[in-house]
């Protein structure tokens, strides 16, 4: 029995918060309809942050800037290139010195469990080789082009980030090393992207890749990496985007 007065009934559920108003005329024992008289207010919950799919994560700085004709004269373009050369100390190959500002770090002791950093290569084609018995072997040629260490993050610092907590949740944490390749004109990139290389003193790189290494394999930011980083006879892991025969 609901009586002759109006009653407010509040309904709480996991995803819905609603309020129903019962009128005296509709509350008779022979005609009680609660469903049609229910006014529900839906409350949406915050979704989790989506993992990266086909677009960069939101914390990455914008890389390429919008290109437009700046109407620069030939003299102005030469002046801009001169300023860039003075800022990044662009010298001829015979006079170029090491990009390291300080002395190199002390090398760690190698162990069978040591994980070293990788390099960024460019696939330039396939070349055949022959063994002594005449067996023909197709070899993929990879060019190590202008690689430098951009940043080193210790295991303790990387574990403070959300990415480090998820990746090494129940594992031994590793250090993170960012390697860049192919230095290009800084006018092609945004100011935020160029600031990533400001502390190293190098020109902006076209490619950036993250490698996980052990602390004893740490390299100082600015260290150049060449094909001599590997030795003949070593087994390496190669990954890349390719079609058809691939690697």
Automatic annotation (TrEMBL):
The gene is EOG090X07HN. SUPFAM superfamilies: Translation proteins. GO terms for cellular component: mitochondrial large ribosomal subunit. It comes from Lynceus sp. MCZ IZ 141354. Signal peptide: none annotated. GO terms for molecular function: structural constituent of ribosome. The lineage of its organism: Eukaryota, Metazoa, Ecdysozoa, Arthropoda, Crustacea. This is Large ribosomal subunit protein uL3m. One of its GO terms (biological process) is translation.
């Amino acid at each position: 029995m609901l009586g002759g007065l109006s009653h407010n009934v509040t309904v709480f559920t996991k995803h819905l918060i609603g309020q129903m108003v019962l009128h005296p005329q509709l509350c008779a024992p022979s005609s009680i309809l609660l469903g049609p008289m229910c006014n529900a207010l839906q409350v949406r919950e915050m979704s989790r942050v989506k993992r990266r799919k086909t677009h960069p994560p939101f914390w990455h700085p914008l890389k390429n800037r919008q290109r437009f004709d700046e109407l620069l004269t030939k003299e102005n373009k030469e002046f801009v290139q001169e300023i860039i050369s003075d800022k990044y100390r662009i010298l001829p190959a015979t006079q170029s010195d090491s990009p390291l500002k300080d002395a190199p770090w002390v090398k760690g002791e190698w162990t069978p469990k040591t994980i070293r950093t990788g390099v960024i290569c460019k696939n330039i084609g396939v070349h055949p080789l022959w063994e002594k018995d005449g067996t023909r072997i197709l070899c993929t040629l990879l060019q190590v082009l202008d690689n430098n260490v951009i940043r080193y993050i210790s295991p303790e610092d990387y574990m403070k980030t959300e990415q480090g907590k998820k990746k090494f949740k129940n594992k031994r944490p590793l250090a993170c090393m960012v390697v860049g390749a192919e230095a290009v004109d800084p006018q092609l990139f945004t100011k935020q992207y160029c600031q990533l290389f400001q502390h190293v003193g190098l020109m902006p790189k076209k490619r950036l890749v993250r490698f996980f290494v052990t602390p004893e394999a740490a390299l100082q930011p600015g260290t150049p990496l060449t094909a001599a980083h590997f030795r003949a006879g070593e087994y390496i892991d190669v990954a890349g985007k390719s079609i058809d025969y691939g690697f």
